Amino acid sequence: MFCPVCNGMQLLQESCPSCGGSVQDYGRSSDFAGPYAPYEQIEFDQHQTSSNMQNQFVCKHLLFCPSCGQTSETVVAEYD
Ligand SMILES: [Zn+2]
Ligand SMILES: [Zn+2]
Questions:
Q1: Model-level pTM greater than 0.70?
Q2: Distance (Å) from CA 28 to ligand 2 centroid
Q3: CA angle 39, 44, 46 (to 5 degrees)
Q4: Which of 4, 29, 51, 77 counts the highest number of beta carbons within 10 A?
Q5: Secondary structure (H, E, C), the chain
Q6: For the chain, which residues make up each domain, given as ranges?
Q7: Which ligand is nearest to the CA of 20?
Q8: 4: how many CB neighbours lie within 10 A of its CB?
Q9: Within 10 Å of residue 26's Cβ, how many Cβ atoms?
């Protein structure tokens, strides 16, 4: 499993939840979170396409908005 964003294969195209501006990817948020495992299995229901795909490995990315200073998180589905 690998994250296409961490591997430079895909650019994050997210917008700031506060001001709608373009945000910067600050990388894997677990790098900032301390002693948690880098891979967490969480329920991924945003892009769920089939009922037997209940769990998927995702990479959490920390986003920073240079316009308003807001930080947020997004998840990227990892590839096999
Ligand atoms: Zn990633
Ligand atoms: Zn903003």
A1: no
A2: 19
A3: 140
A4: 29
A5: CECCCCCCCCCCCCECCCCCCECEEEEEHHHCCCCCCCCEEEECCCCCCCCCCCEEEEEEEEEECCCCCCEEEEEEECEC
A6: 1-80
A7: 2
A8: 15
A9: 14
Structure tokens at 64: 């920073």
Minimum-distance ligand to the CA of 16? 2
> In residues, how long is the chain?
80
Averaging pLDDT over each range in 40-44, 45-49, 59-63, which range is the top one?
A: 59-63
Please tell me the distance from the alpha carbon of residue 7 to that of residue 12, in angstroms, as a whole number: 12
**Cα-to-centroid distance, 68 and ligand 2 (Å):** 4
Cβ count near 3 (within 10 Å): 21
